[in-house]
Every structure is written in C-alpha cells, then in structure tokens.
Amino acid sequence: MQDLDWAPLLQRWQGHVFAPGERGEIGVGKQLAAAGRPLPTSALWLRARSESDVRRALEFLARHEQGFAVRSGGHCFADLSSHAEVVLDLSELRRMELNLQGLRAGPGVGASEASAFLTSRGRLLPTGGCPGVALGGLSLVGGFGLLGRRHGLVCEQVQALRVALPGGDLVEASANHHADLFWALRGAGAGQFGVVTELLFDTQPAQALNVVHARWPWDCAAAVIEAWQALAPAADPRVNLELALSAGDDPEDADEGPPQIELFGVVLADAEAVPALLAPWRRALGSLAEALCEWRLPAAAAASYLCGRLDRRCEPAWQPSQPYREHGYQFTKSGFFAQRLPASAIAELLAHFAADRRYAQHRELEFIPWGGAYTGACTGAETPTSGKRPQADCAFSHRDAQFMVRHTAVVGARSSAELRAHARRWAQASRATVATAGNGRVYQGYADLELPQWAQAYYGADLPRLRALKSRHDPWMLMHHAQALTPSFQDLPTR
Ligand SMILES: Cc1cc2nc3c(=O)[nH]c(=O)nc-3n(C[C@H](O)[C@H](O)[C@H](O)COP(=O)(O)OP(=O)(O)OC[C@H]3O[C@@H](n4cnc5c(N)ncnc54)[C@H](O)[C@@H]3O)c2cc1C
C-alpha cells in the first residue's frame, strides 16, 4: 500500500482523508475497543461524502487490488470495520427522506437520529437499543430490538438497498432486482459483498407503549431466570422483556458493588390490554412481582426509550462525551439457546458471575427473548401500514432459538494487561458455563474474534449459498476483514 499513488483518487475526492496516525479521528464514535485489541492507527481513512466518492474509491481500490474495510457507525463488537490498511468510512452518508415508499436513509444514520427524524413525522423504525449504532451495520447483521418480537428484525424492514459492488458498479437490490444480493445482504452483508450506500425501510406508525422495570437483589437471580425462561420466549409478541445481570466495577462499593438482576422492556399495546398481557408474569413471579414498575409512555417518549436515549427506568440515559481520546476494552461472548437452561447451568453461571471480581472490571449478562416475529412467520398484525409484509426471506437463520445470552466484561483505557487478560478469561468461562445447553449458533451482530467456527455459527446452512455469492461479487476478497467469507472454489469466475 505504501507504494500506491493515491493522487488520482484524492484529486476528485469530496470527503475527507485522514492519514495514518490521526488517532483522534479514528476514535470518534468509538468508546470501547474489542477483545483487548487497541484500535489501529495505521489505516488510511477515506471518509466518503457521497455515493460518487464510494464508487470512485471502489474502482480505484479494485484497479490496485487493494483490500479495504467498510465502516458506518463503528460499533462492531470485533472492530472488523476498523482493522484494515484502508478504511472506507461512511459516517457522513446520513441523508434521510421519508416518502410514500418509506424511509430512505444513508448507512451512517444512527438509530437515535432515525428515531428523532421519524418521530416528528409520526413514524417509527424498530431498531436496537443503542443510540449510536448505525443503520448500515445494524441492517446488514440482522438487528434485534425491543419491538423485534412484534415487528421482526431491522433487516426485515428493508425493502431495497443501493450497493456499490467491488469494482464500482452500482446496483439496487430488492425482492425483484438482484434478489440473491437482496437476500444475502440482509443478515450476512456486513463487509462481505458490496458497500451499501442507501437503504429503503418500511416504517411503522409511532405508538404509545408501557415500559416495565423491576430490580431484585442477587439472591433472587436464579428464581427470576427460571421464571423468565418459562415466560419471555413464548410471550405474546407485544411483550418484549429482557433480563440484565450486572456487577459494578467496584466490588467494595456498598450501593453499586453487589451484583443485581433487572427485568426491563416494553408492552406494545393499548393501556387497557396491558394488565392481561402482564398477568402471567405476575402469577409466575409471585411475591417477586411486587418489584414490578410500569410507565405509560406517549409515542415520542416511547421512541426515545426504544433507541436508548432513555434508560431502563425512563430517565435520560447517560451518554459518554465524544470524541473519545482514549478507549476502554470490552470482551463479549454470546450464544443462542433453543431450550431452557437447566438449574445446574444457571447455578454455575451465577456463581461464576459473582466470583473473583476485580476492581475496575464491569460485568454484564443479558438474556434476550426470541420467538414472536423472529421466527420469520409474521402474523397479519405485523404487516406495516404500507401493506408490504416484512421481508423475512433473508440470510438470517437464527429462527428457532428461544433466547440469546450475551456475556460482557468491560475494563478501562488504563487497565493493566493482567486486568484485561482476566476480563477475557471471565467472558470465555462465563460462556462455557452454559455452552452445552446452547444450539451452537451465534448472532453475527455480536461478532466474536475468538469463535473458532464463526462462519458456521453465524450463518449455519446458508453458508454454501453465501460463499457462492462471494465468488460472484467479490472473488478477489477486496472487502476483507478477519471474518470475511471466502469464495467457494467451484464458483470462482475464470479471469
Ligand atoms: C453498545 C452496543 C449496543 C448494541 N446493541 C445492539 C442491539 O440492541 N441490537 C442489535 O441487533 N445489535 C446491537 N449491537 C450490535 C450492532 O448492531 C452491530 O455491531 C452492528 O453491525 C454495528 O453497526 P455499525 O454500522 O454501527 O458498525 P460498523 O462497525 O461500522 O459496521 C459493522 C459491520 O458492518 C460492516 N458495514 C458497515 N457498514 C456497511 C456498509 N454500508 N456496507 C457494507 N458493510 C458495512 C462493517 O464492515 C462491519 O463488518 C450493539 C453494539 C454495540 C457496540
């Protein structure tokens, strides 16, 4: 790459170019680095300002056989969008337009920006719960959130995508055009087949809902998990309640130190219907149900809650100041489960969670309910007002899971190598406590660099079809990162 003459590209470049070493810029939008790997400072960053910039970059990079990574919001849990010699940064592609077809949005639009834009127009896009995650990466990995059991994945709201293919050709992929690409991008598209420059989403009407929250002391954790497993995955799709177990970074702190367990989420229904929808929860929780709190949120506040601008108790969420000059480190493992965890596995998971804690190491376990519209079989009630059905035929194959568990340890920017190693070991061992009860599958949106059979775990039976498509669209693997699909040999074109 050192010998490459970039001048022909940069002469016509509309965006900004950051030379290797401009670390401050690389840190923008990135609070935590993954798996103990510091964010690289060696990459040349091409920040595109337009689709023409993207096409020009792809033509140039293909001509010089120069590999690159793509970045929209930079929230990849494995930093696949940052570790490369050349990064094509789409964070400025943030145009939004709402018309009768739906929401047209650039890949750099954050979940929170989309939410604010749509709310003021009476509409809603089901996204995940992190305000800074961009629609680009979110839609390409699948995208679950607190409305997912009702409306399906974020990628199922996508009706069409504009895609610059390696080499520079621009196509629009939809159910009727480039249908294979349309299928593959929604679920398996992160940095694999082409650079998505615009997405067309169907939207839902903005709606009031009930937020539910409860917090219990640690000795209730096993009973709460047992009850949650029996209820959450099979609940009415309008009920989406998660569990979060957390342990603050100071084990000695009398208030924040002890680990705790919380239930949080939404009931998306008219106020009169809510008591009946929560009745099974109150029955199953027995005396523990006394901790349940509820808030009725009007549509605008509901949208803020759903994208993480309000916290679990409906207070304004803490937002870290940006740009980050230093980044901490997060270690994340996860897995899907098609059946309940046995009591012995729950006991082991909880014991491991509370044992051998260290100062300045934060731990978290999240239980995310599946079922409902995630099965891919959507009911009439989930049909958006445009009349189109969610596009469930896509490369997202985690359909039969009951729930997902995420294990995360976070340490600060100035943590010692020993503390980072301890956090890594904790996350690995936490996952191992429940691994045998899992179905072996892992959400591609929680990319994990340490996963040995990552392609099988993310894509399952779709893998051969995806590799054939890689052969067709990016046989030279110009779009390259540590978990890039390899082309299937028999499908490679002849030069
Ligand atoms: C704090 C936090 C909270 C999260 N919460 C949720 C959640 O609630 N629900 C959920 O489903 N996920 C969640 N995630 C995971 C998140 O959805 C994925 O990591 C997502 O891929 C991030 O998208 P991004 O554009 O922000 O990140 P990036 O790092 O920019 O991109 C992620 C991947 O997509 C590729 N990519 C990005 N843009 C394009 C493009 N335009 N064309 C082609 N490839 C592209 C990148 O190369 C990379 O491989 C969370 C992640 C974090 C860090």
Specify the helix fraction band.
25-40%
Q: What is the helix tally?
A: 14
Mean pLDDT: 93
CATH topology label of the largest domain:
Vanillyl-alcohol Oxidase, Chain A, domain 3
The second-level CATH architecture of the largest domain is: 3-Layer(aba) Sandwich
The total count of strands amounts to 19
Shape: globular
- In percent, how much strand structure appears in the residues? 15-25%
* Biggest sheet statistics: 8 strands, mixed
Tally of structural domains: 2
**Main CATH class of the largest domain:** Alpha Beta
Low-confidence stretches: none
Question: Can you describe this structure?
Answer:
This protein is an alpha+beta fold and 495 residues long. The chain folds into two domains: 96-205, Uridine Diphospho-n-acetylenolpyruvylglucosamine Reductase, domain 3; 209-446, 3-Layer(aba) Sandwich (Vanillyl-alcohol Oxidase, Chain A, domain 3), CATH 3.40.462.20. Helices cover 26% and strands 22% of the residues. It contains 14 helices and 19 strands. The chain has helices at residues 7-10, 23-27, 51-63, 111-119, 135-141, 148-151, 179-188, 221-231, 274-285, 299-306, 343-354, 417-434, 454-459, 463-473; strands at residues 16-18, 32-34, 44-47, 69-71, 86-89, 96-99, 102-105, 123-124, 158-164, 170-174, 195-201, 204-205, 209-217, 239-247, 260-267, 293-297, 328-337, 361-369, 403-411. The strands form four sheets. It has an eight-stranded mixed β-sheet with strand order 2-17-19-18-14-15-13-16. A five-stranded antiparallel β-sheet has the order 6-7-11-9-10. Helix 4 (111-119) runs antiparallel to helix 10 and helix 8 packs across helix 9 (274-285). The chain is globular. The protein starts with 6 loop residues before the first helix and ends in a 22-residue tail after the last helix. The mean pLDDT is 93. The site of flavin-adenine dinucleotide has 32 residues, from strand 4, helix 5 and strand 11. Flavin-adenine dinucleotide (FAD) binds next to strand 4, helix 5 and strand 11.
